[in-house]
Amino acid sequence: MSISVNTMRAIDHWVGVPLCAIVSPLVALIDSIKNIFARPLDAPRKLLFIELSEMGSAILVDPAMRNAQARGAELFFLIFKSNRASLTLLNTVKPENIFTIDSSSLGGLIKDTLRFLVVARKHRIDTVIDLELFSRFTALLTGLCGARRRVGYHIFHGEGLWRGFMLTRKVHYNPHIHITKNF
User: Domain with 55 in it: what CATH number?
Assistant: First the structure.
């Protein structure tokens, strides 16, 4: 039995909003401390893409991943276990650098999420690109994985899902243009 999309949305709302509110100040404090003691950021060396639920987005972002790889970045990708096949077909990210989260049960989701956060910090990923449009869950993963540079979609003045302050580089999402242009 797997978790339905509506259940995931409800969890993302009812758990995600309070968690984003609690975690955002902590992430901001850690960022401030890191920025005092750390050297300036270079070009991304260890680049993580997060796209859990949309297989098509992994395909749309493949040219950007290949470009980053050509510039010397080591690629990582986080995706739901059920969608891993899309990345395998692309053959851009090394299989050992593909992290998966099992969304078939709440227990598996929690276990794999915690495991990912530990593994991401061990790999010392410096840049995360959150490809989900408005998921609070991926915003939390982005904020907590330890990267200093965190990029993702944000609604600046429009209505939309509040994701906290997990991003260091906010990209405006324009709902009036096709998603390929947004990417």
Answer: 3.40.50.2000
